[in-house]
Amino acid sequence: MKKFISVLLALILICGSAFTAGVYAQEDKGGICFAVASDVHYVTPAKTATSTPYNEGVETTFKSGKDSLYNQSGFIIDEFLDQCAKNPECRFVLITGDIATHGRDFASEHEAVAAKFRKFEQETGKQVYVINGNHDSALNCAVGREDFISIYHEFGYDKAVSVDENTCSYSVNLNDEYTLVALDTCDERYRVVPNNDISRMNWAVTQIRNAKREGRKVIMIMHHNLLEHNPYQKALEKNYVVDTPYSFAGLLADLGVKLVFSGHTHVTSATSYTSFLGNTIYDFSMPSLGNFPAEYKLFKMTDSEIKYETKKIEHIDADKLAEVCKGYSKKDIALMKNDFQQYTWNRSHAVYSEKIRKDISPETIGIKESSALYGKLKLVTDGLRELSDTPIYGENGIQTMAAAYGLEIPNSSYSTLNEALTTAYLTYKSGRRIYSQDSDDFKLIVKLIAFSIRKSAAEAADGDVLFDANAFLRELGYSGTVADNILKDFSKKYGFATPEEKAALSLAFVLFGGFCSDTDGVENRDGKYNPYGRGLKPRICFSFAGVFFFKQKENAETQEV
């Protein structure tokens, strides 16, 4: 037995040394720079600023939201490509899905964008690479998988080393050093739900291994997030993250993949995962180019570091827009020409302010009318909605009213609860601020909700208003001890103990939880990390994630037989 163990250890050391030597022998031969954009959401402009595209009796599977910059989308794409064209360092462009809002209903929408990409390539010699999003194609729609590949054939597929016959996935060599694996994560049947089934995962792993055998480094693009960008995302936004995220991410990390670019959430966020073997992979959830915040990222990779920065669309050709789409005010035209970021903020703030006000209800946060908690929670949410636009400060403000209930509302720069929630939401989406449970914003919102519950309890029987916070969280999908730990941790920090405060905390996490959970230490907007090949641990046989993945594959094959 001892001899066997000694031989085994010797083999492991030899294999590990050989693998490590192979990694460090592959030094970067030079720098590379590229732009990444997502959720372009092109829509043909309407005839007037106040009308909605396709509103003349034409049915679409997706409706353009009021916050969408649908009339401006084509001009945003033009400005984005112009910036990439004028940047001498930028070598190519990656697009991570949702290229056209009504793309699966109208091939003409895709063809309009493809024409812009084609013109950019012809004039600059730079290449555009795309992958599909849930808006771009679907079964039983005008644009299916084969149609998407045909329209965007010049933007990755024509130069592909491999195209997955069952999806829109493909792999292509970007240059002598890098291979791009573009992974289709969309489920054509359900159109929105992510799908990284065994076959497409296996295809991706094969492409990565083939690239590594040729001494290439691999970067990936996909539409849905590879990783959770807050601890509650899979529970609250299950359609935004791929299935089995951590087993898949661990396998990719141990295979040497360091960078993955995704989209879908319209949130500027970067997060990382380190496998059991100590290899780290980064998932960059890209901002929306065609909606707020109208931004993209520029990456520069050298033999010493990976550096990235968030770039803004500062202006568009608003005069040309005004010729196509009538009815914009002189103020709007001036803002679009000189401060497009302020224009997008103003528009989105007005839309989300109203949306958040309407969303304060049991139904919106996942409590059905049949639930035993519904009646109790509705009294609270109705009261909270009524208070959302009440001034927080001043003689008749919430701060004064709350004092009568023995609750101190902290000072802040916000005038109302609605303003606090709306500003926090948009700031979070743009990645400009990392919130935590210690933030003044979160404390303020918890206190305001606690006041609403106390006020409701004072106006009705306590038993009709108060609800069990743990039961509430568990009904929303927080399993096991998660709900308990949320309450225990916050109560320990701030001394919250009353039923009202605990109920307020559970409700605050539903309304505000995603904003106060970005504490992973990965810079969302601008940052830098170790380059490919640095710190990669030898992958002996399989990582734990790899074992899990291939066990799944084995089980699936057995079931098929």
3D architecture notes:
Helices cover 43% and strands 12% of the residues. It has 561 residues and is an alpha/beta fold. The protein has a seven-stranded mixed beta sheet with strand order 4-5-6-7-8-10-9, covered by helices on one side. Strands 3-2-1-11-12-13 form a six-stranded mixed beta sheet. Helix 8 (245-254) packs across helix 20, helix 10 (330-338) crosses helix 11 (340-359) and helix 15 (440-459) crosses helix 19 (499-512). The protein is globular. It starts with a helix and ends with a helix.
Write the layout of secondary structure elements.
Elements: H1 2-25, E1 32-37, H2 73-86, E2 92-95, H3 107-124, E3 127-130, H4 145-151, H5 153-157, E4 162-163, E5 170-173, E6 178-183, H6 198-213, E7 217-222, H7 233-236, H8 245-254, E8 259-262, E9 269-274, E10 280-285, E11 295-301, E12 306-312, H9 318-324, H10 330-338, H11 340-359, H12 374-387, H13 398-403, H14 417-429, H15 440-459, H16 462-465, H17 469-475, H18 482-494, H19 499-512, E13 527-529, H20 544-560
Parallel strand pairs: 1-2, 2-3, 6-7, 7-8, 8-10
Antiparallel strand pairs: 1-11, 4-5, 5-6, 9-10, 11-12, 12-13
Helix pairs in contact: 2-3, 8-20, 10-11, 11-14, 12-15, 15-19, 17-18, 17-19
